[in-house]
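Kindly draft a sequence, keeping tokens residue-aligned:
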Amino acid sequence: MNWSEISIHTTAEAVDAVSNILYEMGANGVVIEDPEVLHRNWDTPYGEIYQLSPDDFPTEGVFVKAYLPADSASLSSLLEELKEQLHVLTSYGLDVGKGTVAVNDVHEDEWAHAWKKYYKPVYVSERITIKPVWEEYTPKSADEIIIEMDPGMAFGTGTHPTTILCLRALEKYLQPGDRVYDVGTGTAILSIAAVKLGASHVLAMDLDEVAVRSAQANTELNQVSERIIVKQNNLLDGIEEQVEVVVANILAEVIVRFTDDVHRVLRPDGVFIASGIIQAREADVKIAMAKSGLEVIETVTIDDWVAIVAKKR
């Protein structure tokens, strides 16, 4: 499907008013391109790297953009209405700057890849770096663990706090030769990290068949597919063999439902790493773990996100 990009060159002062006009015209959302962000001091507690290009922003003023179907029969009348509404804003004393309106055609497949320019290498720890497959990267040291990722349509670029918490916990608790169950694997980023940290075997499971395909592709991309089996599966249903580590980066609402199964598939002193938990649900997860015979040994947080590490005693 093709879209029409409606771009208004205005001022920072008028951004809210212009955005509201676009919403009233039927836009589901707006894009604001303000060069102010080029000079902003970003808070990067998770190791994010921001590489913004001045070429993507106006040299003066602000672009406010919205998208409407290109085949919209009423597009021309909407554009006329937009210009009239901008003129009305000036009559109220609001500075809309140039107030020019431009229309560009956008192909949907271009959107599918546009986000990639914002996905850069992420330094998870002193040892682990996540690298998009399309990015060039030079390792900082000979023993650096590099995980190459192509998320595709599945969740999990490695930049989310819950993923970072899991990766750091795996680095701390996983022992060479351990066997691992990765529940809700997504893109298999945790499975790949486990193998590169020394796991002998990983079973990566996800209920979503799109995630399963993405996970398989990423294990092959990282040349670890011989030690990772990717399987479509609902949590730990039907899994019997005991392993040393279970990791699950999913919602607290899901974690509390299968702590009994985690206890069942863990070897004595086996480790359960659970993340995807908001602080408001931390106590619920810990209670469920305790009822299932899992002893909490560490809790770590990034902002409002929590990872809990427990052992089967």
Summary: The mean pLDDT is 86. The first helix runs from residue 15 to 24.
